[in-house]
Amino acid sequence: MSSSDTVTTALVTNDATALGILAVVLGFVFYTSNSSNAFWKKFYTFVPALLMCYFLPSLLNTFDIIDGKASQLYYVASRYLLPACLVLLILSVDLKAIMSLGPKAIVMFLTGTVGIVIGGPIALLIVSAIHPEILGVTGPDAVWRGMTTLAGSWIGGGANQAAMKEIYEAGGDIFSIMVTVDVIVANIWMAVLLFMASKAKQIDAKTGADTSALEALKDKVEKYHAENARIPSLNDFMMIAAVGFGVTGVAHIAADFLGPFFETNYLWTRDYSLTSKFFWLIVTVTSIGLAMSFTRVRHLEAAGASKVASAFLYILVATIGLHMDVSKLADTENLWYFAIGMIWMLVHASFMLIVAKLIKAPLFYMAVGSQANVGGAASAPVVAAAFHPALAPVGVLLAVLGYALGTYMAWICGQILQAVAS
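-> structure tokens emitted (422 positions)
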């Protein structure tokens, strides 16, 4: 085979075969991460399953088994599965139920969001003052572009992270570094939150927090799920597909009109991503999803809409992994990126702890509000359940609110990061 740059030397060049390999990889990760085998239990105690979903496909690219750059799988996943995923995740936003948690829960969640939006630029300012070379790279692999994907992940989740990657055109190299920073730093913080959860009674007693509302909430959550959960039928799955891909189709029509419209008539809006078709695609599906959350369509969540969305999301995660080159992570220069991540998380954590102390919020609100931002629906329920199993859905509820806000707030963070970097 030719060694020309225009011809791939990868072992697998058929995207159908590549998709099959990725599906098997994801199946392997999920099977082993849920296995009762002692080895796998210990393995996944130290290595997050999500990291494996990125890492294993990246090995396929690194060792030239699949050429990630030549493959069209990421394009398909980001244009079709990602919008459908966002719609199905946002469908279950129940603003009434969130408000019933009380103002302190919402305050803590939004404090976490603000901490992420502000923390990124602060971290970039501090590290660039110590190591100015970090701002030396321009173009797709500029550090601020990579940081926008981290903001998307830490406010919303993987779907919002992928959205920021497209909107701000982050390159594969900087993105692969930020994915690693994301997983490692976020999991360190989650471990801290789980430790704090084990000391919740002592901490709440010291801060004088009122936890009486939590007991009532436990009863309400248990009753709601007992009344609404059901075994999904084929009709349910077809309705989920109709809503997810139907809204995606409408959003593509809107994006195909709005992107060129702003490009032609308001060229100055290019700096704010308003000329990007992908920006309008994501904003449209987010907005329609929020509107649908006030209708009967939201009951599709009881049939597993978010589980279908998660399946789409993990396929997307695997296709993103195909753009990673693991060999880049061995560069000592990347230690500065981890410094950015740690400072960023410290700013977020400081905001959360200070506000929690000021308003005497229960530790539960602080921990779940933070994890709903940083970890999303995958891990917020884990932290919530550490307080009480019946509270796990509350973590999902706040995390879904994060999905809704993620695109908007991460975009704002990206604008600030761009200003700091320039």
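The radius of gyration is 21 Å.
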